[in-house]
Amino acid sequence: MKVMLFKLAHGRSGDKGDTVNIGVIARRAEFYEILKNELTPEIVKAHFGSMVKGKVERYELPNIGALNFLLHEALGGGGTKSLRLDAQGKTYASALLRLQLTLDETRYPQLQLLQAK
């Protein structure tokens, strides 16, 4: 089953220097397990491709059902150094939420909640 990340989570992002910070928060407590298992630093880095030159770190926040990603070397040097049109990380959460995940419905019965509306 293909699922856009925005159906499972919402997000916020910002920046500090040349690092983007993206918080991905499960829309329902039942979706946190999916995010934790499927949304890896490798997948996030691949999604952004050449925009992220450095490593991607992930921190788990199970008490609030969220993941926090740090994307290093992702802003062309940062707001005061970059030649990019938008050298800040404010839009990165929206870009990440467009990621399409391929999920096994038998592994995640909670995906039925997406169709319960």
Could you say how many structural domains there are in total? 1
Strand content: 25-35%
Q: Which class of secondary structure composition applies to the elements? A: alpha+beta
Mean pLDDT: 89
Number of helical stretches of at least 4 residues: 3
Q: Give the total of beta strands.
A: 6
Q: Segments where pLDDT lies below 50 for 5+ residues? A: none
What would the principal axes of the Cα set say about the shape?
elongated
Largest sheet: 4 strands, antiparallel
N-to-C SSE string, H for helix and E for strand: EEEHHEEHE
Sequence of strands across the biggest β-sheet: 2-3-5-4
What's the layout of helices and strands?
Layout: E1 2-4, E2 9-16, E3 19-26, H1 32-38, H2 41-48, E4 56-61, E5 66-71, H3 92-96, E6 100-102
Antiparallel strand pairs: 1-6, 2-3, 3-5, 4-5
Protein name: AtuA-like ferredoxin-fold domain-containing protein
Domain AtuA-like ferredoxin-fold: 4-101
Pfam family, one: AtuA_ferredoxin
Q: Could you explain the architecture of this structure?
A:
The structure is a single chain. The chain is an alpha+beta fold. The protein is built from three helices and six strands; from the N terminus they run E-E-E-H-H-E-E-H-E. The protein has one domain. The strands form two sheets. The chain has a four-stranded antiparallel β-sheet. Strands 1-6 form a two-stranded antiparallel ribbon. The radius of gyration is 15 Å and the shape is elongated.
What are its keywords?
AtuA-like_ferredoxin_dom; elongated; four-stranded antiparallel beta sheet; single chain; 29% strand; 117 residues; 3 helices; alpha+beta; 17% helix
